[in-house]
Amino acid sequence: MTALLSVNGVSRRFGGVAALSDVSFAVPAGAVVGVIGPNGSGKTTLMNIVSGVDAPTHGEVLFDGAPVQGRPAHRLARLGIARTFQHIRLVPQLTAAQNVALALHEPEAGLADILLRLPRLHRIARERHRLSVALLERAGLGRVADSRAGDLSYGDRRRVEIARALAARPRILLLDEPAAGMNHTEKHALRGLIAGFRADGITVVLVEHDMDLVMGVCDEIQVLNQGRPIASGPPAAIRKDPRVIEAYLGAEDA
């Protein structure tokens, strides 16, 4: 398969500390690729670089064959790179649907619509709400569309963030520990949701500590340790790789 995303020799230093060192891998279009590693291995730094939150010290990031490293996050979102964050970033006072609507690119109201309160403004508001509810339904959360985000369970708030990322109509979706804080039932629903992305042609990069989820949904897995890549391959190979077992999975999973 053709690579939609390529990370080539990416390094990131913060002063004298190397957070990433010469990381390279490719994400085929339509695949689900996992990135795992111990805490502090550079996973979130990598996600920040790919999504435009940060820039590499060395190396390049290619999206659909074009270099995108160093471009701001909002421009990458317009290109089709969407992301959720390790720490939830919803507005708790807004409803779930309103949080999702914040990420919709269209339809948008113009200045004249707002100042003159033209009838078109109300049509746009209704359409944005309809689209937001549809995205929440896709994430299995249609029932909470009009509930305040701050009143939702932790797992539901995680999925609202995913629905909001979908509002950007991404070609690739970067999920940073989406299963954190979820119970077994919520994780099962998340696994089905990610599988649905693959069926819809949305490429996924999944950073996650839940190995059952990673092994069950990913086509390929990249493993980092202390900022360096130590292994890559399909889940069955990663599970048996002695370097991965020593660094991360633990001997009991061998």
UniProtKB/TrEMBL annotation:
Gene3D superfamilies membership: P-loop containing nucleotide triphosphate hydrolases
Pfam families the record matches: ABC_tran (PF00005), BCA_ABC_TP_C (PF12399)
A cellular component annotation (GO) from this entry: plasma membrane
Record protein name field: ABC transporter ATP-binding protein
CDD domains: ABC_Mj1267_LivG_branched
Alphabetical UniProt keywords: ATP-binding, Nucleotide-binding, Transport
PROSITE patterns per the UniProt record, alphabetical: ABC_TRANSPORTER_1, ABC_TRANSPORTER_2
UniProt record similarity statement: Belongs to the ABC transporter superfamily.
PANTHER family the record matches: CONSERVED COMPONENT OF ABC TRANSPORTER FOR NATURAL AMINO ACIDS, CONSERVED COMPONENT OF ABC TRANSPORTER FOR NATURAL AMINO ACIDS-RELATED
UniProt xrefs under SUPFAM superfamilies: P-loop containing nucleoside triphosphate hydrolases
Record InterPro entries: AAA+_ATPase (IPR003593), ABC_AA/LPS_Transport (IPR051120), ABC_transporter-like_ATP-bd (IPR003439), ABC_transporter-like_CS (IPR017871), BCA_ABC_TP_C (IPR032823), P-loop_NTPase (IPR027417)
Domain ABC transporter: from-to ranges: 5-251
A GO MF term: ATP binding
